[in-house]
Design brief:
With 563 residues, the protein is mainly alpha-helical. The protein contains 18 helices and 10 strands. The strands form 4 sheets. A 3-stranded antiparallel sheet has the order 2-1-3. Strands 5-4-8 form a 3-stranded antiparallel sheet. The chain has a two-stranded antiparallel sheet with strand order 6-7. Helix 2 packs across helix 3. The longest helix is centred in the middle third of the chain and has 30 residues. It is flat. It holds the Pfam family DUF6350.
Length: 563
């Protein structure tokens, strides 16, 4: 035994490291990786397309290095950044600022998907992120039916701040060297435009992805709206979440405008089919070049649809400095690029009644906005909105629709050179102002009239439903009563679920103090924090600051000095 040495058993350090790596909650690192992968995938798609066109070209102007420079510049252009063409005949660099809107969908979709997946801890099942209620988690699989009662033992979900920051930083970490590399090609990104557009697109798309993954909560929207005056906030949001209804109506109106513009574009291309075909054949004499022109035209179709929509609104669009194409007069520039899409531009001269008929597109958009607003005003189980509230919601929808169209017009236009080619496309503030005038004038009376018609048609069913609800309350059935609690500067809502056959009198009090009683309450979940829900099963939403001396009757508990 004298030769035996005493040793201490030491754990394997790699086993502890593997355990910590397996049980970690993914945060900033996962977001960084997701953002970098999104940028690489978008860049690889552009590189593959440009390389295919370069290989199929019978007379390439440069080698593989030049094709990769063009692919990098095209990827930067897809974010809305302006390019500068250095090799011009005059020797003066010429800007290229018309970004195809179809290319913009690729980085936006990749960023949205990366940000949505960055919030998933990777277990595949769990509760909805940020809601505190059971359900499928955004960005993950749905929990099987046989696992409904099994608690979720996986890692906690990633916070919205970490996921958003990681995706944005990872994306920009790849974008910065790409912009530097593209400076050595014939098409060079503008430093100013690249520094503004790339972060804006990354932050906006990643923010939308995280917001979608967390169930589109109203808390961030409420915190943004706190800077507005009280009366304006009440007009937009309180008491029946009119902002969401107005946003949906505005989106529907903008979709009708752009869809109507696409229809006008198709009709004009068919009308000028011979001119468009001649321009397509005159640009190049080989099939690879014609395929490239076809891809360019397809990528610019959304831009042309926005141009046609603004044309129908009245202001029209600019084809060269000082040359405006509008329904009442058309004066395009004499020397335009021989692009097949430009063959759809009306001939120079005064407008005709056929061109004035394009005004039916904004009329239809305003009617759709009014109809969506009226449907939201009468969709609730309680009393319908008053005509004043309906008109206010339609006006808010018109403002939102005008802002959306102005943003599309700003992205759809740009410059194609210097001098006469310095301005191409619609003017964003003119497009937004015309949209506001058209939609507001049409949507408000349509919304008020449709609301009255829907209320008149649904009067009898509502009366029957109300009688059945009163009878069920008297029998002691389950209900969702509301009560309003005062707090500093605004109202908060407290609600609970009453069990079957208990607290009939409390249910009556809750029904009388319902959400639509006087229309002064704050909608549920508007000012809640990000996914911070209480652990108690009796309450889903509690007031932040309740006076201590105010008793509150809660079913199943005795009222005391506070809640």
């Amino acid at each position: 035994m004298a030769g035996v040495m005493q040793t201490t058993a030491r754990p394997n350090p790699f086993a502890a490291l593997r355990t910590r790596w397996r049980d970690r909650s993914p945060g900033l690192a996962a977001g960084l990786l997701g953002g970098a992968v999104a940028a690489v995938l978008g860049l690889a798609s552009c590189a593959a397309l440009v390389t295919l066109l370069w290989i199929s070209s019978p007379y390439p102007d440069s080698g593989p290095d030049g094709a990769l420079h063009v692919a990098a510049a095209l990827w930067v252009l897809a974010h809305g950044a302006e390019l500068v063409r250095a090799d011009t005949l005059s020797g003066t660099p010429a800007p290229v600022g018309v970004a195809p809107l179809l290319l913009l969908l690729l980085p936006v979709w990749l960023l949205h998907r990366a940000a949505r997946d960055a919030t998933d801890p990777g277990d595949g099942v769990g509760v909805a992120v940020g809601s505190g209620r059971p359900g499928p988690k955004a960005g993950a699989g749905v929990r099987p039916a046989w696992m409904e009662g099994v608690p979720d033992a996986g890692p906690p979900p990633v916070s919205a701040r970490n996921a958003w920051t990681g995706v944005v930083l990872g994306y920009l970490a790849v974008a910065a060297p790409v912009v530097l590399y593209a400076q050595g090609g014939a098409l060079r990104p503008s430093w100013w435009w690249a520094a503004v557009c790339l972060p804006l697109v990354a932050m906006g798309a990643a923010g939308a992805g995280v917001w979608t993954a967390f169930g589109r909560p109203g808390g961030p929207v409420g915190r943004v709206l706190r800077v507005l005056p009280r009366k304006l906030r009440e007009l937009m949001v309180e008491p029946d979440a009119r902002l969401g209804a107005a946003t949906r109506a505005a989106g529907a109106g903008a979709a009708v405008l752009v869809g109507g513009g696409a229809l006008l574009l198709a009709v004009s291309l068919v009308w000028h089919g011979t001119t468009a075909a001649d321009a397509f054949l005159r640009l190049t004499d080989n099939w690879s070049g014609r395929f490239a022109v076809l891809l360019l035209c397809l990528a610019l179709v959304p831009n042309a649809a926005v141009w046609a929509a603004v044309y129908a609104l009245g202001p029209g669009f600019v084809l060269g400095t000082g040359h405006v194409v509008a329904p009442f007069s058309s004066a395009p520039a004499s020397q335009l690029p021989p692009l097949p899409l430009l063959a759809a531009v009306p001939e120079a001269g005064p407008g005709t009644p056929l061109q004035w008929a394009a005004g039916a597109v904004p009329l239809a958009a305003g009617a759709v906005v009014g109809w969506f607003t009226a449907r939201a005003a009468t969709a609730g189980a309680g009393a319908a909105w008053s005509w004043r509230r309906t008109a206010g919601a339609a006006l808010v929808a018109a403002v939102l629709c005008a802002g959306l169209v102005a943003l599309l017009a700003a992205f759809a236009g740009g410059s194609l050179g210097n001098g006469a080619l310095a301005r191409f496309g619609p003017v964003w503030w003119q497009a937004g102002g015309a949209t506001l005038a058209w939609v507001a004038v049409v949507a408000v009376p349509v919304a008020v009239g449709a609301r009255a018609w829907r209320c008149r048609g649904a009067a009898a069913p509502r009366a029957v439903e109300k009688g059945g609800a009163d009878e069920g309350a008297e029998e002691g059935r389950g209900a969702w009563p509301w009560t309003r609690l005062p707090s500093a500067g605004r109202w908060r809502w407290l609600w609970w679920r009453r069990d079957a056959g208990s607290g009939a009198q409390a249910g009556k009090r809750g029904g009388s103090a319902g959400r639509g009683a006087d229309g002064k309450g704050m909608p549920f979940g508007l000012y809640d924090d990000e996914g911070e829900a209480g652990d108690g099963a009796a309450y889903d939403f509690l007031p932040v600051d309740v006076p201590v001396d105010m008793p509150v009757d809660v079913p199943g508990e005795r009222s005391g000095g506070g809640v």
